[in-house]
Specification:
The chain is α/β, with parallel strands linked by helices and about 400 residues long. It has 2 domains: about 170 residues, Rossmann fold; about 220 residues, CoaB-like (Rossmann fold, 3-Layer(aba) Sandwich), CATH 3.40.50. Helix content is about 35%, strand content about 25%. It has 13 helices and 19 strands. The strands form 5 sheets. It has an 8-stranded mixed β-sheet, with helices on both faces. Strands 2-1-3-4-5 form a 5-stranded parallel β-sheet, with helices on both faces. The two termini are about 25 Å apart.
Length: about 400
């Protein structure tokens, strides 16, 4: 998708660098159009380095391409962050005195403005009238967040967080093909305690599960996230249940699955846990033998959910983080797991050498319950998430 990101001249412009990263990591092509004032806060080099495209505010750049008309016509989405009081006024009055305002006049795609300004400016009758007029014309104008502003000031006028802006903007152009569905997604790595300070865990950050939840929310689903250990923020608008161990997750997923149309087990659940948890910290003794930790198997949450089917017509999706060995390739093991687990879809990825953990990218093969390949995806974890949901819709159809 082709996105124009306009950047107004406010201190919150620095947050738009993260917004740009979120949009590009989701697989979109983004052209930044800063205002002249915004370049006092964030330089042109930053926008060009992050987007890989030219960033200019001048109408007379690229005159041969008629950029001031072409950019708006070709855009699939226009997002302005931050939209200052001045920029809102210029957009409402139809000004065309720089590249951003001319682009706003020529855009026929959805347009979202994310305001940021001091509270008095936001509450001023002129600003309120400008916002009302823009909304009447079909422009989406977010309400600013409430919080710390420049200096010691605090109140309404803070720029919404980048993930909130990105979700609201993409929702304008995403097909709402998951609307009416209740979805539960598990994410992160479970923790199995050994004693009060030590545990068995894994390298999962929860990023792929979070992107699956975000994508479902953007596409209209009601989403519940069951989160074990994660090191990424949960998107706004998603209900979260926090868990720790595999048995905690099993109980939470069993409860959530009773009303869910789609269940996605993306969490990295520990296969084993210590048979006995020591009440006090295990002490190290000089020259002594290290303690032996005996393991027992954890419940197989995916297989249980797939075989029990908490409600009719429920779709179950599992993830298989595999490595190849002497017994077979990654896909060999994933196909055997697909047939054994009984899920409708199994998303297989190669984690040899710790790859994908903590990365923003992933490469997966999506299998059906017989182990046959139905789709593959390679790219950002956000793009992979949407590919998984595409496969879910095909399976449900």
């Amino acid at each position: 998708m082709r996105i124009i990101l306009g950047v107004g001249g406010g201190i919150a412009a620095y947050k738009s660098a993260l917004l740009l990263r979120l949009l590009t990591e989701a697989g979109h092509s983004v052209r930044v159009i800063p205002t002249a004032a915004s370049l006092e806060f964030v330089g042109r080099a930053t926008w060009e380095a992050l987007s890989g495209e030219k960033a200019t505010h001048e109408i007379f750049d690229d005159v041969d391409e008629v950029a001031h008309v072409r950019l708006g016509r070709e855009a699939d989405l226009v997002v302005v962050s931050p939209a200052t009081a001045d920029l809102l006024a210029r957009a409402a009055s139809g000004r065309a005195d720089d590249l951003l305002t001319t682009t706003l006049l020529t855009a026929t795609c959805p347009v979202l403005l994310a305001p940021a300004m001091h509270t008095e400016m936001w509450h001023h009758p002129a600003t309120r009238a400008n916002v009302a007029l823009l909304r009447e014309r079909g422009v989406t104008v977010l309400d600013p967040a409430v919080g710390r502003l420049t200096g010691a000031d605090s109140g309404p006028g803070r720029l919404p967080e980048p993930d909130v802006i990105a979700a609201a903007a993409l929702a304008l152009v995403r097909p709402q093909d998951l609307a009416g569905l209740e979805v539960v997604v598990s994410a992160g790595g479970t923790i199995e305690p050994i004693d009060p300070v030590r545990f068995l865990g894994n390298s999962s950050t929860g990023r792929q599960g979070i992107e699956l939840a975000r994508a479902a929310h953007e596409r209209g689903a009601r989403v519940r996230l069951v989160a074990a250990s994660i090191d990424v923020d949960v998107p706004a608008g998603i209900e979260v249940t926090r868990v720790s161990s595999a048995r905690d997750m099993h109980a939470a997923m069993d409860t959530a699955a009773r009303t869910a149309d789609v269940v996605v087990m993306a969490a990295a659940v520990a296969d084993f846990r210590p048979k006995n948890v020591v009440r006090d910290k295990i002490k190290k003794t000089d020259g002594g033998e290290p303690p032996v930790v005996r393991l027992v198997e954890n419940p197989d949450i995916l297989a249980d959910l797939a075989h029990q089917r908490r409600r009719p017509g429920q779709t179950i999706v599992g993830f298989a983080a595999e490595t190849g060995d002497a017994e077979g390739t990654v896909l060999d093991h994933a196909r055997a797991k697909a047939r054994r687990k009984g899920a409708d879809l199994l998303v297989a990825n190669d984690v040899s050498g710790g790859r994908t953990f903590g990365s923003s990218d992933n490469s997966v093969t999506i299998l059906d319950r017989d182990g046959s390949t139905v789709a593959s995806a390679d790219g950002s974890k956000a793009a992979v998430a949407h590919a998984v949901w595409d496969a879910v819709l095909r399976a449900r159809a």
